[in-house]
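Could you help me review a protein record that somebody else here produced? This is what I was given.
***
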Amino acid sequence: SGSLHSTSWNLPFLETLDLSHNYFYGSIPDSVSNLTRLHRLSLSTNKFAGSIPNSIGSLSSLEEMYLDSNNLEGAIPASFNGLVSLKRLEIQSNKLSGEFPELGSLKNLSFLDTSDNAITGQLPSTLPISLVQISMINNNLRGTIPESIKYLVNLQVLDLSRNRLGGSVPSLVFNHPSLQQLTLSFNHFTSIQSPETSAIAKSELIAIDLGNNELTGFLPSFMALMPKLSALSLENNRFTGMIPTQYALKTAVPGSGILPFERLLLGGNYLFGAIPGPLMELKPDAANVSLGDNCLYLCDDFIIDTYMTGTLSPYLGNLTNLVILDLSNLKDLKGPIPPEFGKLSRLNLLFLDTNKLTGPIPMTLKHLSLLQKLYLSDNFMSGKIPSSIIGSLTSLSELGLSGNQFSGSIPASVGKLVMLTKLDIHSNNLSGSIPKSIGKLKDLTYLDLSENQITGSIPNSIGGLSALVLIYLNQNQIMGSIPSTISGLVSLQFCRISENKLTGKIPASIGMLSKIQRLIFENNKLSGKLPATIGHLTTLTDIFFSNNHLTGKIPSSFGNLHGLQTLDLSRNRLFGPISPQLANLQMLQSLDLSYNPLGLVSIPNWFAKLKLFKLILAKTGVEGEIPRWLSSSSLSTLDLSSNALTGKLPHWIANMTNLSFLNLSNNGIHSSIPNEFKNLSLLMDLDLHSNKLSGNLNAIFLKETQDPLGHFNSIDLSKNMFTGPIDGNIGERPAMASVTSLILSHNPLGGSIPKSMGKLSELQVLELVDNGLSGRIQEELGDATKLTRILLSRNKLSGAIPEKVLNLKELQEFDVSKNRLSGEIPPHKAHIPASAFMDNPGLCGAPL
């Protein structure tokens, strides 16, 4: 990280400079131009800002330049014409603006990517004829496609999507001698120029995307005659008329020497008439064809009268030859499923998920004996899951009923679905117990019953699901113990049974789950010791056992879990010492042992061997000073709160440059805030409350940051001994631009509330209780429009309460009691009790 401006670049023979994927910031220095023999320059994926220096154009030997994924601004310099050897130029994902310069001098340039910027103006009339690929996605380009494109005889890829181009798509892009991929989607094109018939057969185009424009008229039939075209998107335009027969023939029965359509997207237009027969007769998976959101006949004698909104038509039941019916994700499809759907006896796949359907599952669906996949997820359907339907659909391999309002119990007849591989009924109102018959589903790989009201215990029969890969039973009311038969889940990789009422011990047989990757048992009432057999599960990556009643020591066998990345045993009754075998967990990134009576006294030195990003040891009995080895760690989260730490807040804490969350609250740390603290440029959440810290706190607000990710989110410095005034420019400090919570209560702070606090546009919570603040409540505080809580009691504030502050739209809690305020309380909409204004002798008016 850091700036490059102090670098002299006295490297006259350097040919490659790659500083990509770091945290360098500031502008690109002019001194880079000293590298006169440079062939490759890569500064991508950093935090560089400012403009691209003109001097970079003097690097005449440069062949590749990567400046992408930074914060560069300004125009693309015309001096780039000096890069006469350049073959590849990538400047995408910046903030570049202005018009694109003429770069006709770059005779060797083959690859150009300027995507995701704010470049304006028209496409340049001259571009290097050597170009093979042009990507200028997501800019503000206007105008039309220039005729000069036809002179780029090597061009294979042209992607100008997500701009503001308009007019007619010229015929020259369709009969271009080398173009293979044309993407002009998300623009404002209104028409298409057809090429000469003789030129169509010579077209090299493989993929065309003109979707999401304003194209009108009939579908261009000439595209079906392009011999190599296999992917065509014309969706979400304003085309009318019928689907050309040529499209159907190219999809289903292409002629000799003509590749078929593998992807044909025509949805979201105003097409009408019969779907051509060859499209209706396509075999499943033959091609990806989308015709949705049109006005089409689904067959010769039926008009879909819903236009993909409104309710499902009962006449759909007349399409008795249907094998697949997919009306998913139409958003505005409402009402019940018609009983007539039961007549679709040949149906294999029925997808009605992600709509607004209501009502029960119609009983007639039990006649769909060939149904293999049924998805009704994410609707507003209700009622019970009918036992007779579930028991009849014996061909089902996948059943998705999640995200509805189904109630009642899971029918025991689910055990008849012996071909089922996926059962997903999470997020409903189901009750009762898990049926024992579920153990008969020997092919089941995916089981999600989470977020219901299921009670009872986990049946022993669940151990028979030897193919099961994933089981989610979380957020229910399941009781009893984890059955020892869990050892039978030999294929299990993901197990989540958190947020239930499970009791008893974790069975030792859990050590038989040889493929398990994640065990999530948190928020239950599990007790007893942690089984040492867990140490056999060498595929484990994550253990979440927090908030249970587990006792004893952490087994030393846990040191065998060499792939473990997360270990969360917080809020149990575990005690120490911690086995040094855990130092073997070299993949461990997150360790949370908080709120256990570990009696650590000091954090073991072998912790320094771990490569942690997150360490939480709150309320574990740690004493003494903050250990020095932390200074060389890569931690982003450190929580040592509610311990017995003493000593000073060390200067070396500034070396922990990855810190984003720091909580040292509820300890006995006594010192001032070291000036080096401002070097924690990524720190977002800081909690130092309830210590013995003193001196000026403003060093925190002066934190240096070039990255929005380093803006503070929350600060709590309450219950310390900080003195002096609050920084008058607090609202203008870059680090405070995104702060949502600022708590400075119970300190002997003096001075006034700074006017600039009103510039903290994201601030929601402001607590300055029990300080020595004086002066007026600044009216500018009302500019912080997201404030929900303002607590200013027990200070020496005087003057009137500003009406603008008291009438903040989001305000829910307000307390200025025990001050020296005067005048009438302004009228306000928020419900604020009289106690919030008490003990201000000069204050009057409602609600006092």
